[in-house]
UniProtKB/TrEMBL annotation, chain A:
This is Integration host factor subunit alpha. Heterodimer of an alpha and a beta chain. It comes from Rhodalgimonas zhirmunskyi. CDD domains: IHF_A. This protein is one of the two subunits of integration host factor, a specific DNA-binding protein that functions in genetic recombination as well as in transcriptional and translational control. The gene is ihfA.
UniProtKB/TrEMBL annotation, chain B:
This protein is one of the two subunits of integration host factor, a specific DNA-binding protein that functions in genetic recombination as well as in transcriptional and translational control. HAMAP family: IHF_beta. GO terms for biological process: DNA recombination; regulation of DNA-templated transcription; regulation of translation. One of its GO terms (molecular function) is DNA binding. Belongs to the bacterial histone-like protein family. This is Integration host factor subunit beta.
Length: 100, 93
């Protein structure tokens, strides 16, 4: 298993190769996709991409946390967290592809 | 929001593009992420989040119905960590 990190640049390169757009436009489209997904999540919507996975926003209640170093109690405010649940297809492909 | 709604939004913003090209673009992005993870890579999208692959060690599991012990092999699972900017935006910062 090689360990490479892909970035926006690699995604826009893939878009550039698949459709006859300029590199600039491809990068812009990758950005728009991420922007629309983020906006929907910020509005509290679920983002469901078939055969990829589902992003959902969960509300976490306030609780008392503890600083693990000092043992001091600190209040943790209620907050919203994002969870990603991969589709079966993605799980299968990731499991298969990384098998020894 | 589902995939087709996302495609529609992008299409609306880009009237110069054919709908089928927009579909292709959106599908390419998700396919590229999945394929990268299938190859054991990580995909880091600053501000949005990072997709990575986590290894789950082999373990002895149990058939919940019969209680029999079964060997579960080591496996790899997809993982997503929310980016700082998006996490902050979710909380109105």
């Amino acid at each position: 298993m090689s360990n490479k990190t892909l970035t926006r640049m690699d995604l826009s390169e893939a878009v550039f190769r698949s459709v006859g757009l300029s590199r600039n436009d491809s990068a812009q489209l990758v950005e728009s996709v991420l922007q629309h997904m983020s906006d929907a999540l910020v509005r509290g919507e679920q983002v469901k991409i078939s055969s990829f996975g589902t992003f959902s926003v969960r509300e976490k209640a306030a609780r008392v946390g503890r600083n693990p170093k000092t043992g001091e109690e600190v209040p943790i405010n209620p907050r919203r967290v994002l969870t990603f649940r991969p589709s079966h297809l993605m799980k299968e492909r990731v499991a298969e592809g990384n098998k020894k | 929001m589902i995939r087709s709604e996302l495609i529609q939004k992008i299409a609306d913003e880009n009237p110069h593009l054919y709908q089928r090209d927009v579909e292709r673009i959106v599908n390419t992005i998700f396919e590229e992420i999945t394929e990268a993870m299938a190859e054991g890579h990580r995909v880091e999208l600053r501000g949005f989040g990072a997709f990575s692959v986590k290894k789950r060690d082999a373990r002895v599991g149990r058939n919940p119905r019969t209680g029999d012990a079964v060997q579960v092999e080591e496996k790899h699972v997809p993982f997503f960590k929310t980016g700082k900017l998006l996490r902050d935006r979710l909380n109105g910062n």
